[in-house]
């Protein structure tokens, strides 16, 4: 799961402090704070008493442990305000930054004391314990954790911090034994060591970097179920130069060929375990709903019937009914358009419903995943000649659908839609035959019982599902091109 922090392209108030609960599987932790590129980043986990960067104050509590990624002021400006005589914080930071930060703290104290020159160093009362770290350091934290330091790809020395939980596990050679056998072995040899310590990845805080870091540490970073990274810009067509010069991440590129080098969004879609594929998203605030309502009203500004439906949605919506609302055209149309165009600004505006829909798809998927190994579903479609030839040329390759992909269990229903296409349009009508493999990374949900159209036997694939193009042939009986896909 990846939690991108907010971009420089957004305009939000300076006191916009949010909180988010970790998934239960990762522990009962809360992430509190804010991150605005080129403004201030500071994230607090109260349960662990740790603060990541301190570009601003996000809590009245003075944390005991502070982890600084780098020395730009939007990440360390308020470090001098996070200490007390009775509670000197431990500050972890790149080893090359120790002396500059020490000098900064002292100069700030001189200003506070209204002194013209530094006092004798012997008179200084320690305010922070500065601990320099370097890439690949691995050290104990508390009694139950370890921390690994990662080198980030940034314009100044910058470190990421990976947190691991230390757990006692049965040694692998004993895992096949029953509890009775293990008990017997303990009785026979009280000094026998049956367990061993293993470290389990929990989360990693990466601060500022480029997407190259995901390739450099691919085997390590993607073991973390939660990755926190700052995504500074929305679109490279607008921010190509500052992103390149400052070594910042871009969310989604509109410049063909650059996305693999710079962009976070395609990287997440390619990872089947990312938050854009399986895991739940952060809780969405009331403000997000208001943003979506505003966007819908702009979209339908001159359409009174649709505006009445938007008003109904505003008054009556509940997350339990998200599928019933999503399949209604006035919701489905603008969201699908935004997803197909990969318009990050539009997608952000509709995040309120997108988040609820993904959670519901996952919830419904959990109901069937243990009972279905393979499933065949169908979908009609139309292609221009060029699009069709491109599809044929990619047999054996994969395609990723950056939208919620609607299918049906009924071949007859899909055929009916395919045959209803205008034969004079010059476009080729096709029928997709899609094999869902439970061993793949795909997530699919039977939404028929939650939809206003249960007779359509609709199955909905989650955002970012990847398919392998297996074959394409013309079916004489229906005079339709059959495109066979399989979830990847």
Automatic annotation (TrEMBL):
- Kindly list the GO CC terms recorded for this protein: extracellular region
Under the heading InterPro entries, the entry gives: ADP-ribosyltransferase, RibonucZ/Hydroxyglut_hydro
The identity of this protein, by name, is ADP ribosyltransferase domain-containing protein
Task: List, for all copies, the residue spans of the domain called ADP ribosyltransferase.
Answer: 372-479
Spell out the Pfam families in the cross-references. Answer: ADPrib_exo_Tox
Top-level taxon of the source organism: Eukaryota
């Amino acid at each position: 799961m990846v939690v991108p922090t907010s971009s420089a392209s957004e305009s939000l108030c300076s006191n916009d402090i949010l909180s988010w609960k970790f998934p239960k599987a990762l522990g009962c932790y809360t992430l509190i704070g804010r991150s605005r590129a080129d403004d201030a980043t500071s994230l607090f986990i109260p349960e662990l008493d740790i603060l990541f960067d301190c570009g601003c104050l996000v809590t009245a509590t003075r944390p005991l442990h502070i982890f600084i990624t780098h020395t730009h002021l939007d990440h360390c400006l308020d470090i001098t305000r996070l200490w007390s005589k009775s509670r000197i914080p431990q500050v972890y930071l790149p080893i090359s930054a120790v002396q500059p930060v020490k000098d900064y703290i002292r100069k700030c104290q001189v200003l506070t004391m209204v002194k013209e020159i530094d006092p004798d160093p012997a008179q200084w009362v320690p305010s922070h314990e500065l601990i320099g770290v370097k890439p690949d350091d691995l050290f104990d934290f508390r009694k139950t954790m370890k921390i690994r330091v990662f080198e980030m790809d940034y314009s100044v020395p910058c470190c990421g911090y990976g947190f691991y939980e230390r757990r006692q596990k049965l040694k692998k050679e004993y895992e096949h034994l029953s509890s009775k056998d293990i008990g017997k072995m303990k009785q026979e040899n009280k000094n026998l060591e049956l367990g061993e310590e293993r470290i389990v990845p929990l989360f990693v805080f990466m601060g500022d970097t480029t997407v190259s870091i995901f390739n450099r540490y691919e085997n390590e970073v993607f073991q973390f179920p939660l990755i926190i990274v700052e995504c500074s810009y929305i679109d490279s067509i607008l921010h190509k130069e500052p992103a390149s010069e400052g070594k910042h991440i871009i969310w989604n590129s509109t410049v063909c060929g650059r996305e693999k080098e710079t962009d976070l969004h395609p990287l997440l879609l390619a990872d089947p375990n990312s938050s854009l594929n399986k895991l739940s998203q952060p809780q969405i605030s009331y403000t997000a709903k208001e943003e979506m309502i505003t966007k819908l009203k702009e979209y339908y500004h001159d359409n009174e019937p649709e505006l009445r439906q938007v008003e109904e949605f505003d008054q009556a919506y509940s997350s339990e009914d998200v599928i019933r609302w999503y399949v209604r055209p006035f919701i489905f149309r603008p969201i699908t358009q935004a997803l197909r165009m990969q318009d990050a600004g539009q997608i952000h505006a509709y995040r309120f419903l997108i988040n609820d829909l993904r959670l519901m798809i996952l919830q419904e998927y959990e109901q069937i995943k243990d009972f279905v190994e393979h499933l065949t579903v169908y979908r009609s479609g139309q292609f221009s000649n060029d699009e069709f030839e491109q599809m044929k040329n990619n047999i054996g390759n994969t395609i990723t659908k950056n939208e919620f992909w609607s299918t049906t269990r009924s071949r007859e229903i899909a055929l009916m839609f395919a045959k209803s296409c205008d034969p004079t349009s010059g476009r080729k009508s096709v029928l997709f035959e899609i094999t869902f493999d439970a061993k793949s990374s795909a997530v699919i949900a039977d939404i028929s019982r939650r939809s206003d159209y249960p007779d359509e036997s609709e199955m909905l694939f989650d955002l970012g599902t990847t398919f392998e193009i297996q074959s394409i042939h013309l079916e004489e009986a229906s005079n339709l091109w059959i495109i066979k896909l399989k979830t990847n």
